[in-house]
Amino acid sequence: MRRSLAFVSEAQDLQVSCSMSVQLNLAVKEQLKAARKHRNRRRSMVALAKGLAYAAGLVLVAAVCYTAALSDQTPARARSAAGPARVTVAGPSPEAIRKAAAEIEALAAAVTYPVQRPGSLWERECRRAVRTFNDDLGAAAAALERNPGCARARSLIQTSMKRQADTLRTLYVERTL
Questions:
Q1: CB distance 175 to 113 below 8 Å
Q2: pTM for this structure?
Q3: What are phi and psi of 114, to 5 degrees?
Q4: Using alpha carbons only, how large is the chain's radius of gyration in Å?
Q5: Interacting residues of 47 by C-beta distance below 8 A, sequence separation 6+
Q6: How far apart are CA 159 and CA 141, in angstroms?
Q7: Disulfide check for 154: which of 62, 80, 91, 167 has CB 3.0–4.6 Å away?
Q8: Are the beta carbons of 96 and 68 closer than 8 angstroms?
Q9: Residue 108 and residue 175: Cα distance in Å, rounded?
Q10: What are phi and psi of 138, to 5 degrees?
């Protein structure tokens, strides 16, 4: 260690020329500019992919809900020819609800971020709310499988799906800004 310190103390100071300093600063600025451009390009591509996934998810959920609404409506002549009318609860079928829940999970995947922890308290609360709505949807779907005419389960599914979609939409908008 002493010999190393003695060698360093005997070494001459390096003289950096002004032109070399300018060249070095320009090279560093160019590297930082290129890295920033690459990062911004990657962020915009991720935002575009998230937006497309979100739009596709909304289209699929709308299609499932529309198909389920159409399948529940039968013409009056067909009902009268079939025999006595049955009392049914309006709403999508359990299979349509499962598909819509899967689509909401796809929306949730669209707003996931590469880091493991959400950045703010607000974001953690939004993600906790989404998980709670997802648990409610699972419980209501299980209740509908046991009892397809359960009005409370259908109501819970409709409100939970709407609130979960709204929360995911808000979380997505805040993350992309």
A1: yes
A2: 0.39
A3: -55, -30
A4: 30
A5: 176
A6: 13
A7: 91
A8: yes
A9: 12
A10: -65, -45
